[in-house]
Amino acid sequence: MTGFLQAGRPPLILASTSKTRARMLEKAGLAFIAEAPGLDEGLMLQAIGDEKTLHPHDAAEVLARAKAEAVSDLAKSAFVIGADQVLVFEGRIISKPENMKAARAQLLDLSGRTHTLHTSVALANNGGTVWAQTDIANLTMRKLTPEFIGHYLAAAGEVVLSSVGAYQFESIGSQLFEKIDGDFFSILGLPLLPLLDTLRREGVIES
């Protein structure tokens, strides 16, 4: 069934190595190639500056656009999807944890508190962005004991290091939360429904 909406249409590339984003597109019936954008997100965030330099909403979009355009420069006939998330907690942008010790520290900080995810998606063609959107979600973690955090990290493994906030909501990371306010797909890392609408509008998939 995959790709049945795309016969004779432009190729589609996901500028990401995220298995979660790839799974979402696959389950939506899309045929695509996944390509790493080859950008250092940490250095890009440093270049962008902190939340006082650029609003997190805009920072997420800058990162998503940069990923899409980096791959689009090399595949100009294709439509390229780029996506990124920025987590904001107490006015600070929180990056992906570097190791399990940092993941534990992040979860201890977020425990019992509310943080905000800014999730951006961009679509590029011929080297330039043709569309972008950023969604906001507020997530409240339940009060976690240090023991539970340790058990959670042992069960989840180092895959949590690929996620801001050291959780993956689509799996056992959902056990960490008390309440969410926002789009489920965006929390997973990709505002899927507006992306599909744009792909239809651009003629990449059948409408």
In brief, what are we looking at here?
The protein has 207 residues and is of the alpha/beta class.
Could you please describe the fold and organization of this structure?
With 207 residues, the chain is α/β, with parallel strands linked by helices. It has one domain (12-201): Maf protein (Alpha-Beta Complex). The protein is built from seven helices and seven strands, in the order βαβααββαββαβαα. The chain has helices at residues 19-27, 41-48, 56-72, 100-110, 146-156, 184-188, 192-201, and strands at residues 12-14, 33-34, 79-89, 92-94, 114-125, 128-141, 177-181. Strands 1, 2, 3, 4, 5, 6 and 7 form a seven-stranded mixed beta sheet that branches. A hairpin with a 2-residue loop joins strand 5 (114-125) and strand 6 (128-141). Helix 4 (100-110) packs across helix 5 (146-156). It is globular, with a radius of gyration of 17 Å. The chain starts with 11 loop residues before the first strand and ends in a 6-residue tail after the last helix. The mean pLDDT is 92.
